[in-house]
Amino acid sequence: MLTTRITLRRFSGGEIKGPFNFIAGSPCFPRDPVGFNGVTEPSTGELLAEVASSGPETVNWAVESAVKGFEDWRTREPRERAKVLLGVSRLLERDLEKLARLEVRDSGKPIWEARVDVKSCADAFEYFGCVAAALRGGHVQLLGGNFGLVKREPFGVVGGIGAWNFPIQNCSSKVAPALAAGNSMVFKPSEFTPMTAMSLGELLKEAGLPDGVYNVVQGGAETGKQIVEHPQVSKVSFTGSVPTGSWIMSSAAKKIIPVTLELGGKSPVIIFEDAEMNNAVKAALLANFLSQGAVCSNGTRVYVHKNVYEEFVERVVDATKAMKIGDPMNEDTVVGATISKQQAEKVLGYVARAKESGAVVLCGGDRVILPHPLDQGFYLSPCVLTNVKDDSEIVKHEVFGAVMCVMSFESEDEVVNRANDSDLGLAGAVFTKDLARGHRIADKLEVGSVWINNYNLFLSELPFGGFKKSGFGRENGVEGLECYTQTKSVYVETGDVDCGPLMTS
Ligand code: NAD
């Protein structure tokens, strides 16, 4: 049953032709194309592009290019690196509209969100441009006038692998700190969203990045594996699912290289009786319905104090029903298209099984067929569920779709225990006017990010990353920059060598 208003299409794009790889400073086709991946435009279900996957020869070409790029880039003054990053930030703002439209066609997310994403990429390059020159090591005073230096050095070639939900943002949040710290990169976007990583390469070149420092290869799991296993890749930064993250970690373990893993989530939002209700409702929408619900940090377990539960549910359902589903390119569309038929079916499957086990669907959870030419697009109405059990599949698993579970609670201890009863720990939130309680809960939540009285704000300044199976390592902030460096300790002797009885004079 369709519960939501609909907007119609007013844009048609057509197929996009490659090349989609970017190696040694130029767009290029793979040297050893391995089949063609037909990339679907989520809003229409039509072919957006045919992208050849990169085989081992192309991955090797990209890594060799990155090795050369690194030799040059590592010697550049940090201020020179900063200038390039700040330049890219300005170019991203210049091309914001063009990139946002490309991102919409690739990912199906609504244009208003795609603009926010591209702006956040400009912010990331600006932030890491600003801190690049401030990256410091340390000085340690030791006995007898001796001292030590702690230097921060880049790893070399970093392999970056991205997910499909925030294509250009995933890429930028790896590239900006990696390059700021003096590394080079070979990046592989998701095979579902191959477009904007290449565009970023052109902007980096225009901003003055030396050839080879940033490279893009295309493909799925096989190409990703080749990047991780390549002997000259010295660190991997991965965004994606827990099973793939686990595989990458075990593969990296064979080479003994570090990884940053940004994985899934099933985050709690806790709304106390004294919360400002309008803000709590707005945040619950932010926590569940951006990017068709495919946001790693989404607060899909919403716990509401029993005394305000009814009011919250009524308001959140009214607001959810009012969100317009439609052509993601339209200005007034709020909810766009799910990335693929397979993902849409996965989400609908979760809702169907939840219903079978007693959940009550208050709105949404249906496939929405829009008029031609959008009738083959993958549109789902955002869903609010109640009457769900803590140990049910819908409460335990990451759905990665627009499905909010609302549950009631009575006491602080009870809700914290329930919130922490998850093997994922990416994010969470607490809504209360009592800041002492807000901080108390923030301390107790076993997650990498907590918002007090807000949700899903990602700031370049604040580190972001997981606890538990949501991963480790951080993106954003100085901590994000440091994840792309390794320390080297240098001891400086100012006196004579004392080797004990080995030699006495
Ligand atoms: P996925 O794990 O299926 O794929 C992610 C990427 O890994 C893709 O580029 C894919 O081609 C590649 N890949 C797949 N198998 C590989 C292998 N064996 N070796 C190397 N690369 C391989 O994930 P997805 O479906 O694209 O993304 C959804 C998941 O990403 C969700 O779980 C979501 O929570 C998570 N995510 C996390 C964050 C975060 O910052 N924590 C952000 C966005 C998405």
UniProtKB/TrEMBL annotation:
Entries under InterPro entries matching the protein: Ald_DH/histidinol_DH, Ald_DH_C, Ald_DH_CS_GLU, Ald_DH_N, Aldehyde_DH_dom
Gene Ontology molecular function: oxidoreductase activity, acting on the aldehyde or oxo group of donors, NAD or NADP as acceptor
Keyword hit for Oxidoreductase: yes
Domain Aldehyde dehydrogenase: 39-490
Residues the record marks as active site: E262
Classification via NCBIfam families: PRK13252.1
Domain of life: Eukaryota
Name listed for the protein in its UniProt record: Aldehyde dehydrogenase domain-containing protein
Keywords, in A-Z order: Oxidoreductase
Pfam families per UniProt: Aldedh
Keyword Oxidoreductase belongs to the record: yes
Family under the similarity heading: Belongs to the aldehyde dehydrogenase family.
